[in-house]
Amino acid sequence: MAGAIMPITIDSNAVRLDHLVFQGTRLTDPALSARRCASDKKRPMAGGLLVNGNSVTITRSVFRDMACYTALEYGTGVEAVISDNTFIGNGTHNTLLHWADGLTIHTAQRFQISSNRFRDNTDVQLIFGSCVGCTITNNNFNHSGTAEGGAFAEIMLQAWPNATSGDFTGTQVTRNTIDCGAQRRCGFGIMIGSAPWYEAPTFGGAVTDNRVRGAMLALNVDYLTGPMVIAHNDLEAVSGTYPSMCGPQRISGASANFSARSRMVLPLTATDTATTAKHYCILNYSIR
Length: 288
Description:
This protein has helices at 30-37, 260-263; strands spanning 8-11, 16-18, 21-23, 49-52, 57-59, 62-64, 69-78, 81-83, 86-88, 100-109, 112-114, 117-119, 124-128, 131-132, 135-137, 140-142, 151-157, 172-174, 177-179, 186-192, 206-208, 211-213, 215-221, 229-231, 234-235, 238-242, 249-254, 256-258. It has 2 helices and 28 strands. By secondary structure, the chain is mainly beta.
């Protein structure tokens, strides 16, 4: 949650972070990592950096090996630039409560998030609670192929219930490249809406001209509460039976799923569909 106690906190405007390395304890102190990740109160201390502020610039830095929670959490801000960073090896996907986001953004306006590299961040690689007038472009997402380096989703636009608005008005999510590999180490390539995790609003903006390969399901829209443009994305169709939080799920030649309630507000005709995701039916959930 925004405001949690993390190892490093910046609460100021006009800060510039450049060419820095933030490294967690996942590999260097597994025992400490396990204790922190097992506690709801201590989990943020197993993450990395928390930022709140306007006109913050974070460039050419590395965020790696956080034990769980998230590598970089941005609480609230206006006109931040997060560009040309690497988020790698954060969390352990197949161990309960040890997963970690790469970059978590709660409430933002006019952010520029571009040309970042995301690899083996094990919850959602890049997740938003709201982002108004933002540009999210030319980011690259991939996985090494190991089960522990997998993720539930790569890009997720949603809201946290009673915490963020889910407003993406004026935001462009475009020209991002996702490749989860031949082993399909991510569940959802692009995840729009808060279900199947929980119910909260999501609306606004445009998701266009992105490329997704190697996901169990390239695009899942569930659920939208207002209009959003979703068009011209290059999505791989897949067939297979994949692990989920509600048991094995069969997908047959589908690249996208649009829930019935999302189709009511989408300005397009959704013809390429898979079985509508159910509440708590999170793909790539195979946790010990």
